[in-house]
Structures are given as structure tokens and as C-alpha cells.
Automatic annotation (TrEMBL):
This is Cytochrome c assembly protein. GO terms for cellular component: membrane. GO terms for molecular function: heme binding; heme transmembrane transporter activity. Pfam families: Cytochrom_C_asm. It comes from the Bacteria. Belongs to the CcmF/CycK/Ccl1/NrfE/CcsA family. InterPro entries: Cyt_c_assembly, Cyt_c_biogenesis. Residues 151-375 form the Cytochrome c assembly protein domain. Keywords: Cytochrome c-type biogenesis, Membrane, Transmembrane, Transmembrane helix. Residues 63-90 are annotated as: Disordered. GO terms for biological process: cytochrome complex assembly. The chain crosses the membrane at residues 12-31, 103-123, 158-174, 186-204, 257-276, 288-309, 329-345, 352-371, 391-411, 431-456, 482-501, 513-531, 537-559, 571-589, 867-887.
């Protein structure tokens, strides 16, 4: 049965969201046009307003306040409602266009929720007749991954972005009516562009607008032979989710990241509104708390992605300078730079002009990153980029439309920004904040300039030119070479800037920095000696980071005594410095401990032999149940494990028989964990068959044992994917992954059968092993065979010796219903299968058939990552600092708004 109704409803909501966004844009434009004269008239009032705001913020920070001009108009008479009379003067006249604009945006929000509901209904109910559900989900996925499959594809991620924009738009309509019309005009226009990305409308054979998430499979794949014979064909199951995305971070990382994307629009919209209303400074006050919140959320989203990579990918870290990572990292840097220039804009025209430029740039860079990751232009340069859905041209129109609109508006209003009466001194906080913002921009430019090489090549190719530009072979070394110095400078500036901000350096006297400098040198010397830091570049970054902690810590102690709410900046800078120290030690001094001391090549493949046999030297070979030494640990590989949906932890893969092509298995024995039986022998249980876990036992010198379960995922689309497991300690992480292992889905390849005829107590040789037939005894217990009163069975007891001990194998010989049967026994540790074929009572000889195969093994790589927890702790502190600053700035804005001055 084809469930077309829900798809038609979803597509209707898509069209409705697009139309209502356009209607809201046009209506808000008409309101904004009608308000231009009202907004631009009270020039003297606006100047006074700015001065009063400067006095309030300065006094709140404990600094010298700026006197309010005595010539400003008297606007403090109260209205009957208790608001200043000026509030009504600055308000917008009520008209039908405003009501239409608001309700159109509200309906747009309802339509977006309708799209979300329809798509989630399709995915959660496994309607695989829809291309989106079939492509990104399956019946095997648990509930949390069904949710994350919603934003697995391009259409779903666009929808997530649209949803957050709609939520923010509704909030802004109801929290700041003064700026509503021009600001929401920008919001609605962005929503119209985004809604067009999922419109899925085709005109003729060439023009396509958007890609619909409600496309039926037969519409997406019209040439598939199955639909010629069966137009109503519905697949039994979907293709499933990319194994790499089957991680709890993928449930929360994309929503967080796209909320960050959406928040970049808020300061951009305020900036456009301020320029539109001929108020190039006033927009900063309401935009500042949203910019802080956006920087915090986007930064958290980026770090969530880094932690996901750390837990899921096996490159040994959390940041690989992948082009898609860079495409999000750069807008965040520019957003933080814009934030700092906003703080100095009240007192510096240079700061104001820079704040306008950077606020525009951070949103344009988000659009540019969207083009990079979704146009397919990155090709093979990134493992994270989407394939092109035919939206490249549409993405370019989206990008250039806002570049042209914003640049044109800024250029037209540039003359409204007054020039500074005197040049900014090096002894002012404005100078140091501006220098810090400049360094952030340079850091972002270095990254985006290199990341954009595929774009340069594409442009040149479009003009018939051949480009020889290529991304760096070692991208990590290329970016680190520059970014370390940029952030060393940023760390230093964060300390000096805080002293300047709180007027600790006055009258051109730098003595206040002497004590933090001495403390920095003492602490850094200890860390350099203790951490054995020998690289001069690393020393520079470490000293700068310690200085940032000491300087900001000193400021923090002083501020807390007065008003802790003012300490957000110092806390955020301390968090940033701790992150830098965590990155320095965890990446710069990551140590491979899985050194191969056997002198034997593990593999002759290119992956292992390149770079002077690097991987052969940095991996250890572990045979099943055979202990090996690795650094200070004694390692033992205990075998393959599997995971069931309703059973905690992992259990041996040999306990179940997998049902091919299904996500279930049959229990070959009772499934018990910690003494509790979850499934009886013969039960069918739901599994996660894509995931194979390798149990690796670590024994520490103290005798303490812990176990890690590095993972291997098998997927038809992705092939074999390896993921690490991590033992987390206070001062370091032990990061372990399986570099290679036999294909767990391949059938066993047994060697040619060899036969041995032996008597009791005889010794015989099975290649590398010595075997002894100890006994042959009668038995009534044979797995899988029920013996009757007239049946008989015996088991041989064959003792096999190897260098690690002995193993008992007990093949059975059965006579049931006068038929002869044989049950072989397999030992995975030895790679042996032995079967009792014949019993000759005349000679007392027993004939065994023996087969051999490759023994089970894994090749393991392990790192120690020192002080990586300092990185995560620093991230947490950074978030707290941003949150404190956001709350403080929003309270300031709210007070001014309630006075009718924002």
C-alpha cells in the first residue's frame, strides 16, 4: 500500500511555508518603507539615547561613566501605561500590513512544524515507498537513530535550519517590536530562500527548484526495472543509516549546530535593520546578546562534532581540518571577532564599521559554507560533504543575493557613520579589542583561503583554464603551522585586553602586568619541565595560554568581589586558554604505545609499508586468548562480541546464529548477562548486526583489569568502518582501535581435510600443535541431538598443546535410529576443526578428520592522549562564560527596551 496522503500533506506545507515566507517578506517591506521617515526623524533623540546607554553600561562595569548631554530632549514624561513617552514616539504606527506580515510568519511557522511532523511520521512508520525514508532509515534502527535519520539527508538538514529560524523569528516578533519590520523582513526573506531548497518543483526538463523530502521512490528512481513490472512496489526495508552516524552525539550535534546557523541570522538581521533605518549604531544593543548566544551555541555544536569524531572515527583525534569542519569553524571565528568589535563600537567609528562588516561576513560565510558542503564542489576533498542534488545554482543565487543586498545597503549608509575625533591610542581598550578581532579574522582567512581551493579550480575551469592548485597533502600540518601562532597571539591579547577593559593599565603604566607576567613564567617553566615540552612553537603557545589564565584569573577575582555577573568575559577567556593547553598536549604530545617489538611485519599492504613501514611499527598483533605485552599493559584479545537491543552490554557472537538479510538472530544457548537470562536457547532476538565489538582485556601493572570494546561496522554502502573505544583517566585517555581484522561477515575458509588414525594415548602432530588422544567415553549429552534409548554416542577427548597451554576438543560420534552421525568441534583460538569419523574396534584405532583455518586475530593501535580532559573542561568553562555574558547583556537590553530606548 502506498501512503500518499501524508506525503501530499507534507508537500502542501512546503508550498505553504514558501508562499507565506514571501508574503511576510513583502508585507514587512511595506511596513518598513512606511516607517523609514518615522525612524530617521528623531536624530537628536538617538544621540542622547546612545549616550545614556554608554553611561549605564560603564557604570555597571565599574568604570568612569560618560556624562549625558544636558541638551537632549526631555523624553522622560510618563505615559498612563508607565512607559516613557518616547516609546510611543519610536513605535511603529499600527496598520494592516504589519498584521498581515506577522500572521503570515506565524502561519509559516505552523507550516514548518507541519513539514517536520509529516516527514517524521513517514520515517518513524517506515514508509519505505518514500525515497527519503528508504535512503536514511531502516527497521533495525532504535528510536534515537530514527530521530537522527530525520536530518541525515540534505532535505532534512535544510528543514532543521528552517525550523530553528522560524522559532527565532516568532521569539523576535514578540520581544522587540521596535525593530520588528526591517529585521523580520530579512528573516522572512531568508526563510523564503531556505524553503525553496525543499520545494521540489520542476519546470520543464531543465529548471528545478529545491529537492522535496516527500518524493516517492518510484518518482526518484523512475528507471528502476522493478517499477516497470510493479508500480506499487514498496521495499521491505530501508538502506539504513550511515554506520558512522549511529552515535548518540549525532542525535544532539546537528540540532545544536543548525541552531547556531540560525542564530547567525539574528545579528545580521539587526544590522540590516539598523542600516535600513539610518541607525548604524543602535542595532548593536539588541543584537549583542543574540551574538553572544549564537557564538556559544555554534561553538558548542562545533565541539560536539569534534567529540563525535573522537569517539567514532579512527584518525586518532577530534579535529582533522577537514574542509567541512573548516567551513563551520571560520564563521564562528568571524562571529567572535564581530562580537568584540560590537563592544567597542559605541566609542569608535572604526569599531562600528568593522562590526558592520564582520556581522555581515559571519552570516555570508554560513551561506558560503552551505554552498561548499552541499554543492558537491568539494568532491573527494571531504568525507563529510553532501553529494550535489542539483541545487548548486540555487545555492549560488542564495549566496549572491545576500552578498549583493548587504553590501549595497552597507555602502549606501556608510556615510552615516561619523569619524573619530582623535586616533585610538594603544593605551585604550578599544585598540586591544580591535587587534584581537583582527587576529581572529586573519586566522579565519588563512583557513578559508586554503579550504576554497576546489572553488578556485572550478571557477578557472568554467573559463576553460586548467588549474594546478591542490589542497595540502598534509592538511593538519599546514593549518597547525599558522593557527598555533594566531592563537598564541589571541591568548596574549585576551589577557592584555582584559586588563585594558577593566582599566588596570592606566596613565601609560604597564606595571600592573608585571605580576601576571612573573607568575606566567614560573608556571610555564614548571609545565615545560614536567611536560617535557621541547618544541619552541609549543612553548610559545603554552606561555601565552598560561598568561591568559593568570591575567583573566586576576581580573576575575577582582570582579567577583564587586558583581559576579560582569565576569563572563574573563571566564570565557580562561576557558579558551584551557582549551588551547588541552589541544597542545593531547595533540602535540599524543604517544603511540602499540609499538611492534616482534621484528615481524604485520602486513605487506601499502597502508602498512608506506612511510618507512610506519603502521607495521605502530601496531600490535593479538591472537585470540594469547596475551601480549604493550607498553605497561598486558593485553589479551578475548574474541568478537555482538549487541542485542534488549540485552545490556555485549556477549559472544558465537551465542547466536545471525539470520541473513535480517536484523535478528537465533540464540544457540541461553543469553545470560550478570546471572540474568534474557533469552532462552532457540529464541529469536533483535540485534545490531552491523556492529562487531572486539573485546580487549587490559591488565595494569597493579593487577587491575579493564576492558575496551573497539568496534567494526559492516555496511553495504560504507564497507568496513572502524571506530575506537576509549579508557578515560584523569590525566590522559587511552585511545584504542582495531586497525585491521579478518572480515567477520566472510565464511570460514578451511584448508584441505587431513586424516589421522590413532589409538588411545597416542600423540599426533597437527602442524604447529601437539595432540594427544586421552580417552573416548560414552555420553548422553550431545548439543543439538536428542538421544533415544536405542541410540548411542561417544565423545573423544583430544588434548591439543600450544605454547600458551592446552585445549580439550571433544568431537562426538553418534548412532541414532541406526544412522551414523558426527558432530565436529571447532576451536577458534587454535583455528582447528576436528571430527571423529570412524571407530575400528578390531584395531582400537580412531580416525579423525582435521581442518585448519586462519586463527582469529586483530591488529590493534593505541595512543595515550595526555591532558585531553583539560580541553573538555575548558570547553565547559568557555560555555559558562558565554552564558554569563549573554544573560548580562540581555538584561541590559531589556532594561533599555522597557524604557523605550531599544
Amino acid at each position: 500500500m502506498i501512503h500518499t496522503t501524508v506525503g501530499n500533506i507534507g508537500h502542501f506545507f512546503v508550498i505553504l511555508s514558501f508562499v507565506t515566507a514571501l508574503v511576510s517578506t513583502i508585507a514587512y517591506l511595506l511596513v518598513a518603507l512606511s516607517q523609514r521617515k518615522a525612524d530617521s526623524a528623531p536624530v537628536e533623540f538617538e544621540r542622547a539615547e546612545r549616550l545614556e546607554y554608554a553611561e549605564v553600561t560603564s557604570a555597571g562595569a565599574g568604570r568612569t561613566s560618560i556624562p549625558v548631554s544636558s541638551k537632549r530632549p526631555r523624553t522622560d514624561k510618563k505615559t498612563p501605561s508607565g512607559k516613557a513617552a518616547v516609546a510611543g514616539k519610536a513605535g511603529e504606527p499600527r496598520n494592516d500590513w504589519r498584521m498581515l506580515a506577522r500572521w503570515a510568519f506565524y502561519v509559516h511557522g505552523v507550516a514548518v512544524v507541519g513539514i517536520v511532523g509529516a516527514l517524521f511520521y513517514i520515517v518513524s512508520n517506515h514508509y519505505f515507498e518514500y525515497h527519503y525514508a528508504w535512503s536514511y532509515s531502516s527497521k533495525a534502527l532504535p528510536a534515537e537513530y530514527i530521530i537522527s535519520s530525520f536530518w541525515h539527508g540534505q532535505e532534512g538538514s535544510f528543514l532543521l535550519w528552517i525550523f530553528w529560524n522560524a522559532v527565532l523569528g516568532v521569539i523576535l516578533i514578540n520581544t522587540n517590536r521596535k525593530w520588528e519590520a526591517p529585521m523580520m523582513m530579512v528573516f522572512a526573506l531568508v526563510q523564503a530562500f531556505l524553503a525553496s531548497m525543499i520545494l521540489g518543483v520542476v519546470f520543464g526538463d531543465t529548471l528545478k527548484i529545491g529537492s522535496s523530502p516527500f518524493l516517492l521512490l518510484r518518482e526518484a528512481m523512475p528507471d528502476a526495472p522493478i517499477f516497470a513490472t510493479d508500480p506499487l512496489f514498496v521495499p521491505e526495508d530501508g538502506k539504513g543509516m550511515n554506520p558512522l552516524l549511529q552515535n548518540y552525539w549525532m542525535v544532539i550535534h546537528p540540532p545544536t549546530l543548525f541552531l547556531g546557523f540560525a542564530l547567525t541570522l539574528v545579528p545580521f538581521a539587526y544590522c540590516m535593520a539598523g542600516l535600513w533605518r539610518n541607525q548604524p549604531l543602535e542595532w548593536i544593543r539588541p543584537a549583542l546578546p543574540w551574538t553572544l548566544l549564537g557564538a556559544m551555541i555554534l561553538g558548542v555544536g562545533i565541539m560536539m562534532g569534534g567529540y563525535w569524531a573522537y569517539e567514532t572515527l579512527n584518525f586518532g583525534g577530534y579535529w582533522n581540518w577537514d574542509p567541512v569542519e573548516n567551513a563551520v569553524y571560520v564563521p564562528w571565528l568571524i562571529m567572535v571577532a564581530a562580537l568584540h568589535t560590537m563592544l567597542i563600537a559605541k566609542r569608535s567609528s572604526t569599531g562600528l564599521k568593522t562590526a558592520i562588516i564582520l556581522t555581515i561576513a559571519q552570516f555570508i560565510l554560513i551561506l558560503y559554507s552551505t554552498f561548499l558542503t552541499r554543492s558537491g564542489i568539494l568532491g573527494n576533498a571531504s568525507v563529510h560533504s553532501f553529494t550535489d542534488l542539483g541545487l548548486s545554482g540555487q545555492l549560488l543565487v542564495y549566496l549572491f543575493a545576500f552578498i549583493i543586498l548587504s553590501v549595497f545597503l552597507a555602502a549606501r549608509k556608510w556615510k552615516l557613520i561619523p569619524s573619530d575625533e582623535q586616533e585610538t591610542s594603544v593605551y585604550t581598550k578599544e585598540f586591544w579589542l580591535f587587534i584581537g578581532a583582527t587576529v581572529l579574522c586573519l586566522a579565519g582567512f588563512q583557513v578559508i583561503a586554503t579550504t576554497s581551493i576546489p572553488v578556485y579550480n572550478s571557477i578557472l575551469e568554467s573559463f576553460g583554464k586548467v588549474s594546478n592548485l591542490a589542497l595540502p597533502v598534509d592538511q593538519i600540518a599546514h593549518y597547525n603551522k599558522f593557527q598555533i601562532w594566531f592563537f598564541a597571539i589571541i591568548a596574549l591579547l585576551s589577557g592584555i585586553g582584559q586588563y585594558m577593559w577593566w582599566r588596570k593599565v592606566e596613565n601609560r603604566n604597564w606595571n600592573a602586568l608585571v605580576t601576571p607576567a612573573i607568575l606566567t613564567l614560573l608556571i610555564s617553566a614548571g609545565l615545560i619541565a614536567f611536560g617535557e615540552v621541547r618544541n619552541p612553537v609549543y612553548m610559545a603557545l603554552l606561555v601565552a595560554s598560561v598568561f591568559a589564565i593568570v591575567a583573566n584569573g586576576t581580573i576575575l577575582l577582582g570582579v567577583i568581589r564587586g558583581n559576579y555577573r560582569l565576569s563572563g568575559g574573563a571566564v570565557a577567556h580562561i576557558g579558551m586558554a584551557l582549551m588551547l593547553i588541552g589541544v597542545l598536549f593531547s595533540s602535540g604530545y599524543s604517544r603511540v604505545i602499540s609499538l611492534n617489538n616482534s621484528g615481524i611485519l604485520i602486513s605487506r599492504s601499502e597502508d602498512f609499508t608506506k612511510n618507512d613501514n610506519k603502521e607495521n611499527k605502530e601496531n600490535v598483533l593479538l591472537w585470540l586468548n594469547q596475551s601480549e605485552r604493550m607498553d605497561q599493559y598486558q593485553l589479551t584479545y578475548r574474541g568478537q562480541r555482538i549487541e542485542a537491543r534488549d540485552v545490556p552490554g555485549y556477549f559472544p557472537r558465537s551465542w547466536v546464529q545471525l539470520i541473513e538479510g535480517d536484523f535478528h538472530g537465533i540464540a544457540l544457548r541461553d543469553i545470560d548477562v550478570n546471572g540474568k537470562v534474557y533469552h532462552k536457547k532457540g529464541d529469536t532476538l533483535a540485534l545490531f548486526p552491523e556492529n562487531i565489538f572486539y573485546e580487549v582485556e587490559y591488565r595494569e601493572p597493579s593487577g587491575k583489569i579493564f576492558t575496551l570494546y573497539p568496534r567494526l561496522q559492516v555496511n553495504e554502502r560504507m564497507g568496513v568502518v572502524l571506530s575506537p573505544d576509549i579508557s578515560r583517566k584523569v590525566g590522559r585517555d587511552l585511545y584504542t582501535y582495531v586497525a585491521t581484522a579478518p572480515d567477520p561477515t566472510a565464511e570460514d575458509q578451511w584448508d584441505k581435510t587431513e586424516t589421522y588414525s590413532v589409538a588411545l594415548k597416542d600423540t599426533f602432530f597437527l602442524n604447529d600443535y601437539v595432540a594427544i588422544l586421552d580417552d573416548v567415553v560414552r555420553t548422553n549429552d550431545v548439543d543439538g541431538t536428542e538421544l533415544g534409548p536405542n541410540d548411542a554416542a561417544v565423545k573423544a577427548q583430544v588434548r591439543v598443546l600450544d605454547k600458551n597451554g592446552e585445549h580439550i576438543l571433544s568431537p562426538a560420534f553418534i548412532i541414532k535410529d541406526r544412522l551414523v552421525g558426527r558432530r565436529a568441534e571447532t576451536n577458534e583460538e587454535l583455528g582447528l576443526r576436528i571430527q571423529l569419523n570412524e571407530i575400528d574396534p578390531r584395531t582400537g584405532k580412531f580416525t579423525f578428520a582435521v581442518n585448519r583455518k586462519q586463527r582469529d586475530y586483530i591488529v590493534l593501535k593505541a595512543f595515550e592522549k595526555p591532558l585531553i580532559n583539560v580541553l573538555w573542561i575548558g570547553t565547559f568553562i568557555l560555555v559558562i562564560g558565554f552564558l554569563m555574558a549573554t544573560v548580562r547583556r540581555y538584561r541590559e537590553f531589556s532594561k533599555m527596551r522597557n524604557k523605550g530606548m531599544a
